């Protein structure tokens, strides 16, 4: 956030100069603009009661129903399944199970027979607490407030547990759960109270009042009160059940109703804001009660004949008929300044009945209370889209027509009509209701919310048409104002619905001017959207209200992904340019309330960079340009006019106003519990507002073009002049708003500073006149008025005086520490000195800090020498400008960011200097005041401990670099401090960092991550590494990947795939090294040849690159085979060509057949030994074919068996060689069809079989006796002999010798 020094400097400067440097006139002009926007915001959307009851409208049924998912009012954010243990109980048939929601304590209650479980559905481990100390089956559970003074302060609620036999009260306490890291959760503890009352009637509904009274509805249809007190007395038991529906001694009040068994009370609802009770009977009768004195209630009113009253307001509606008119739930409406609705009732088919106080006073009721009457009937949507069709939306080709009956939806085949609603929820104008779906496992959820674009005034283009086309219900009287229109949709939800309840939100502070409860446009950038929980038998579903911001974000995403501009045009037409620009500015700058999943709102949620660019572009284009409007008198211009500002300027003003709305008119201070003044707004709220303001300021600072003018379309001189006037006025107004924005950010930092220094204490040290001014200030006054300047000036002076005094005291404490000979006293003086210096760190300059650091070094005070500079680094860089500059790699930000970065670095350098000093003092004698136990080694060790314990990531990075530079990297790896990994990964990376990083992972037991780093290091193009080093890194990577445990982190399959990839890369790198070594002698042949060869040592190549760029151009057959072998690429034509080339080359070099044969052996054998059995590089049949053809062409000069013996030397098994030769023998393809060649092959076979036999007979042979195919060879020899030419006596003798050996040995 912005530095407090800026606000303090401007206020302090005015103490020296009479004329303040702050332009108050500009600030006040900008503040007036904010006022105008806040007033428009308050007037733009009426309260829902104002819409419903406008000009005598008694019924309405207008809805906006769309077949796309951009405008659905709610979306499912999260589903949390019931824990398995409880779910198993629930699905068991031999138990009785009930459940419900307790949103105040963030629990679901689930009863299984007599056992009660409270499930924390939001915790990471879904904790469950239980209560099992009563024997009866639990039918209902409710949460109520306890009576004050009866329990200890820790008890915040009572659990009312209802069974058929009794009602039990259990005390409950809530406390923050420190064990949860993901969200602030609540720990629940249950306490027995011994408050139990036996029953004659089972209780089916419970309601509690704010003062702790408990009212219940019995199965007999009567209204009861469970009265409890601290002790029994003559006049009452400690706990008793009072029947308020039947007169008698037990009720202690006159009888006012007779229990009617035919019209039983079904439920009781409390209205804590008005202190009323409502009961609902089976015949749709609503009774109103007011709890009065202890044990008594006053019957206020009975609302009966509601069906008749409803029918009179909409006589021809098919939704109103006696068979389906059944009220299922009552919902008290929270009071607000403009709302007159007290109660909403919902029927089984979705009709909503709105009750408001009547204009006349009722008999027997005080002047403050008026009886309720049915004032409006809201009919359900009759043309809902079935959820099955909603899941496959199609955007309509034309925008929806305003006023079309029931929000006409084209191409709809299955309109859905509500008929059996069982659960409902109404909160702040939002309605959710569940009814059973078409299949057993699904319920349908009706979601409705006000469509503000239909009755709000946003200067939008699709203004409502005349009253004749509005969707009022026939027969009613209407005015010119548009009716209430709501978005409506059906969502499917898994399971059967048990309860629906809103997620509890903090109460909204009253601000002036007040906005309507339903005006989410005014509040969406400053508070969380409404969320509603739906409990089904499968778990808890959390639904979140989709705001206009969410709708706009989806529109931008659709435009970015599909280049579809229609939704953007619809949005702009619906909300108008000012509202649209304000929301686009919110999305572009980021906001703490954008991410609905972030419940803490502690950080700015931003769009993806590319989407933020789209938002900025839309902001610029949708905002249009300002216009100059001249005043004319009798048709002539008097050259005086006003600017009509662009949507960009108005959008900026509106968004700015909405951000400061919660505080702008709020008092700066209030009286705290201790009697001293304190900030009227909490630090958390101020920080959130400040973050959002700063995000807006940062966007505008970085994108000044958003308010630049663009070339006009008109060339007329006068038009151009008017346009310039308009732009001049716009720029002046925007400039004033930006000045106010900057000043507001600084002022909030100043208030937070005052809170740090205890606002009340600071204020008490001011003059009485200043105190009076401060207590009268609002936040607006503090920022924009002379009184605000005067007050802030005085407060700054008090802080400065206090800090100067603290520095003097701190220096005195250092002097005392230096003079004392008692180590304990010296540590106390030094600790107090450090505390005072820390408190006054905001006015410490670097020179003073360096002086203090020297004192701490001299006194060997490690804690002060390390902690004070660290704290000063944060104080000097309160906005984290320097930290962000460092995070960006010193590439983003201006002079301010760089200056903050340099100040941080100087603080860190002082710490490093202290560490060096402490190390250098090892060989020096201790000061005279030191005791023998204070060894300098201990001081040095303590200093390093404090340094490593720091949470300042930037300091850690500086410290690590310093230690590595002093050759202490191995020590760092042994310690493995918390930020070391991030430091080694941080840009700019280097081979040295990666060397340490992979070793870090090895020592940390993460070999797979070490392998990943080594792989990156080997493959990186940005490092100047030779080929040998890269090969070494890949080898190490493979070794580490193989060391990865099978079960670590569930990454086994990923690790195997990674290892396989590494091994393949290693093989390719080895090929590259071989190619490089082969070509290295030619590096000086020609410049371009040398450059290409040298490139092999610079980076790793792929196999394709090696083959295409080296093996082929340099025409190296062996390397070609190597590439084919490693890549396992099988291409018979290519490999055959390569082998032909090898044999042709040998034939060309020598003309003598024997010399050729001698050269073939040392050429082919190594290749065979290396590549066999690879069909990619050593296809046996091709090689054998070439060898046999070679021998046949020179059969007169080469001995029998020359070809097969070469293959044996290559490592080819005898059996496979025989198979290949036998195929040639049997073949009739030239040259094997010539009889002389067939006989020559037979001679080769004879030699092969003889060699094979000898090898099999040899001791320790690799060929087992059982593997030798005796029968097959014996049979084949008979064939060979029978077909042998008589001249082949030697071959025949060889065959016969083999047969004899076979018979002798087998």
TrEMBL record:
Residues 1-14 have a biased composition (Polar residues). GO terms for biological process: protein import into nucleus; protein localization to nuclear inner membrane; RNA export from nucleus; transcription-dependent tethering of RNA polymerase II gene DNA at nuclear periphery. Keywords: Nucleus, Transport. Residues 75-542 form the Nucleoporin Nup133/Nup155-like N-terminal domain. Residues 646-1287 form the Nucleoporin Nup133/Nup155-like C-terminal domain. One of its GO terms (cellular component) is nuclear pore inner ring. InterPro entries: Nucleoporin_Nup133/Nup155_C, Nucleoporin_Nup133/Nup155_N, Nucleoporin_Nup155, Nucleoporin_Nup155_C_1, Nucleoporin_Nup155_C_2, Nucleoporin_Nup155_C_3. One of its GO terms (molecular function) is structural constituent of nuclear pore. Coiled coil: none annotated. It is found in: Nucleus. Residues 1-21, 381-413 are annotated as: Disordered. Its main location: nucleus. Belongs to the non-repetitive/WGA-negative nucleoporin family. PANTHER family: NUCLEAR PORE COMPLEX PROTEIN NUP155. This is Nucleoporin. It comes from Tetrapyrgos nigripes.
């Amino acid at each position: 956030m912005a530095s407090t020094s800026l606000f303090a400097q401007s206020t302090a400067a005015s103490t020296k100069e009479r004329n303040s440097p702050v332009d108050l006139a500009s600030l006040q002009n900008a503040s007036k603009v904010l006022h105008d926007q806040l007033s428009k915001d308050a007037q733009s959307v009426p309260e829902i009661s104002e819409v419903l009851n406008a000009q005598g409208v008694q019924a309405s049924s207008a809805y906006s129903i769309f077949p796309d998912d951009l405008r659905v009012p709610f979306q499912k954010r999260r589903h949390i399944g019931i824990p398995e243990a409880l779910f198993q109980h629930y699905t068991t048939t031999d138990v009785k199970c009930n459940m419900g929601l307790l949103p105040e304590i963030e629990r679901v209650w689930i009863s299984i027979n007599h056992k009660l479980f409270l499930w924390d559905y939001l915790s990471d481990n879904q904790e469950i607490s239980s209560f099992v100390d009563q024997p009866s089956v639990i039918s209902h559970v409710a949460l109520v407030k306890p009576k004050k003074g009866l329990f200890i302060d820790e008890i915040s609620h009572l659990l009312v547990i209802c069974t058929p036999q009794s009602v039990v009260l259990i005390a409950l306490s809530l406390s923050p759960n420190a064990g949860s890291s993901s969200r602030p959760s609540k720990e629940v503890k249950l306490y027995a109270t011994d408050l139990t009352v036996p029953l004659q009637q089972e209780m089916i509904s419970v309601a509690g009042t704010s003062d702790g009274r408990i009212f219940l509805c019995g199965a007999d249809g009567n209204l009861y009160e469970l009265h409890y007190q601290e002790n029994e007395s003559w006049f009452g038991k400690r706990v008793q059940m009072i029947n308020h529906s039947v007169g008698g001694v037990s009720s202690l009040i006159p009888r006012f109703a007779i229990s009617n068994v035919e019209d039983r009370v079904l439920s009781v609802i409390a209205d804590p804001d008005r202190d009323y009770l409502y009961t609902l009977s089976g015949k749709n009768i609503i009774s109103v009660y007011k709890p009065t004195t202890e044990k008594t209630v006053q019957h206020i009113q009975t609302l009966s004949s509601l069906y008749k009253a409803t029918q009179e307001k909409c006589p021809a509606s098919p939704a109103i008929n006696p068979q389906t008119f059944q009220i299922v739930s009552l919902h008290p409406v929270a009071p607000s300044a403009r709302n007159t609705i007290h109660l909403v009732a919902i029927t089984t088919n979705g009709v909503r009945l709105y009750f408001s106080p009547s204009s006349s006073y009722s008999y027997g009721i005080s002047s403050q209370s008026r009886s309720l009457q049915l004032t409006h009937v809201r009919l359900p949507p009759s043309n809902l889209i079935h959820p099955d069709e909603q899941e496959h939306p199609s955007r309509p080709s034309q925008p929806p027509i305003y006023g079309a009956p029931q929000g006409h939806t084209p191409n709809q085949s299955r309109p859905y009509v509500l008929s059996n609603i069982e659960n409902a929820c109404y909160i702040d104008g939002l309605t959710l209701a569940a009814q059973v779906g078409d299949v057993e496992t699904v319920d349908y959820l009706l979601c409705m919310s006000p469509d503000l674009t239909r009755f709000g005034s946003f200067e939008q283009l699709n203004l409502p048409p005349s009253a004749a086309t509005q969707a009022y219900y026939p027969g009613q009287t209407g005015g010119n104002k548009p009716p209430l229109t709501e978005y409506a949709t059906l969502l499917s939800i898994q399971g059967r619905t048990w309860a629906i309840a809103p997620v509890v939100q903090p109460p909204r502070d009253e601000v002036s001017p007040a906005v309507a409860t339903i005006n989410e446009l005014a509040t969406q950038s400053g508070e969380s959207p409404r969320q509603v929980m739906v409990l089904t038998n499968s778990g808890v579903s959390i639904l979140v209200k989709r705001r206009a911001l969410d709708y706009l974000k989806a529109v931008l995403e659709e435009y970015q992904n599909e280049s579809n501009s229609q939704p953007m045009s619809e949005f702009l037409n619906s909300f108008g340019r000012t509202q649209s620009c304000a929301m686009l500015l919110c999305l572009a700058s980021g906001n703490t309330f954008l991410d609905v999943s972030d419940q803490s709102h502690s950080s700015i949620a931003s769009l993806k960079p590319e989407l933020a660019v789209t938002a900025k572009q839309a902001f610029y284009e949708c905002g249009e340009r300002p216009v100059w409007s001249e005043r004319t008198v009798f048709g002539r211009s008097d050259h005086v006019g006003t600017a009509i500002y662009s949507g960009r300027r108005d959008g900026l003003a509106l968004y700015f106003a909405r951000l400061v709305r919660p505080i702008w008119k709020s008092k700066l201070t209030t009286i705290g519990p201790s009697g001293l003044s304190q900030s009227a707004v909490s630090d958390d709220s101020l920080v959130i507002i400040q973050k959002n303001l700063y995000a807006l300021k940062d966007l505008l600072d970085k994108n000044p073009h958003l308010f630049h003018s663009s070339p006009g379309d008109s060339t007329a001189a006068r038009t151009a002049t008017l346009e310039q006037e308009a732009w001049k006025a716009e720029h002046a107004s925007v400039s004033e708003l930006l000045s106010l924005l900057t000043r507001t950010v600084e002022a909030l930092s100043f208030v937070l500073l005052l809170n740090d220094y205890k606002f009340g204490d600071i204020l008490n040290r001011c003059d009485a006149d200043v105190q009076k001014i401060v207590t009268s200030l609002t936040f607006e006054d503090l920022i924009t008025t002379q009184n605000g300047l005067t007050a802030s000036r005085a407060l700054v002076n008090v802080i400065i005086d206090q800090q100067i005094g603290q520095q003097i005291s701190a220096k005195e404490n250092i002097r005392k520490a230096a003079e004392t000979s008692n180590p304990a006293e010296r540590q106390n003086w030094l600790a107090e000195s450090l505390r005072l210096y820390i408190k006054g760190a905001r006015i410490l300059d670097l020179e003073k800090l360096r002086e203090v650091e020297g004192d701490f070094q001299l006194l060997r005070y490690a804690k002060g020498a390390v902690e004070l500079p660290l704290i000063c680094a944060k104080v000097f860089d309160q906005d984290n400008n320097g930290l962000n500059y460092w995070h960006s790699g010193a590439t983003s930000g201006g002079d301010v960011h760089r200056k903050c970065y340099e100040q941080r670095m100087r603080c860190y350098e002082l710490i490093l200097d202290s560490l060096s000093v402490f190390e250098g003092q090892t060989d020096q004698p201790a000061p005279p005041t030191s005791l023998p136990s204070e060894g300098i080694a201990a001081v040095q060790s303590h200093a390093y401990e404090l340094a490593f314990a720091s949470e300042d990531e930037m300091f850690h990075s500086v410290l690590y670099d310093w230690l590595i530079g002093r050759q202490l990297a191995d020590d760092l790896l042994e310690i493995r401090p918390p930020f070391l990994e991030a430091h080694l990964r941080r840009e700019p990376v280097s081979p040295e960092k990666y060397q340490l990083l992979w070793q870090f992972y090895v020592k940390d037991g993460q070999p797979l991550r070490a392998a990943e780093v080594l792989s990156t290091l080997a493959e990186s193009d940005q490092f100047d590494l030779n080929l040998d080093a890269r090969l070494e890194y890949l080898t190490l990577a493979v070794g580490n990947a193989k060391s990865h445990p099978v079960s670590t982190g569930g990454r086994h399959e990923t690790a195997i795939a990674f290892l396989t990839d590494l091994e393949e890369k290693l093989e390719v790198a080895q090929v590259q090294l071989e190619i490089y070594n082969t070509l290295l002698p030619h590096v000086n042949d020609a410049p371009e040849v040398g450059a290409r060869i040298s490139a092999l040592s610079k980076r790793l190549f792929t196999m394709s690159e090696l083959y295409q760029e080296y093996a082929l151009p340099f025409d190296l057959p062996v390397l070609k085979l190597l590439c084919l072998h490693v890549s396992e690429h099988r291409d018979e034509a290519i490999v055959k060509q390569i082998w032909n080339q090898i044999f042709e080359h040998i034939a060309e070099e020598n003309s003598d057949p024997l010399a050729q044969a001698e050269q073939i052996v040392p050429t082919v054998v190594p290749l065979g030994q290396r590549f066999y059995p690879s069909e990619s590089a050593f296809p046996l049949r091709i090689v054998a074919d070439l060898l046999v053809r070679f021998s046949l062409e020179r059969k007169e000069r080469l001995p029998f068996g020359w070809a097969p013996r070469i293959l044996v030397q290559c490592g080819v098994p005898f059996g496979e060689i025989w198979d290949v030769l036998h195929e040639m023998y049997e073949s009739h393809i030239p040259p094997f069809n010539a009889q002389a060649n067939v006989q020559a092959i037979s001679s080769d076979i004879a030699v092969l079989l003889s060699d094979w036999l000898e090898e099999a007979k040899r001791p320790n042979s690799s060929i087992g006796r059982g593997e030798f195919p005796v029968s097959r060879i014996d049979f084949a020899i008979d064939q060979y002999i029978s077909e042998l030419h008589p001249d082949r006596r030697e071959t025949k003798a060889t065959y016969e010798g083999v047969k004899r050996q076979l018979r002798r040995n087998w």
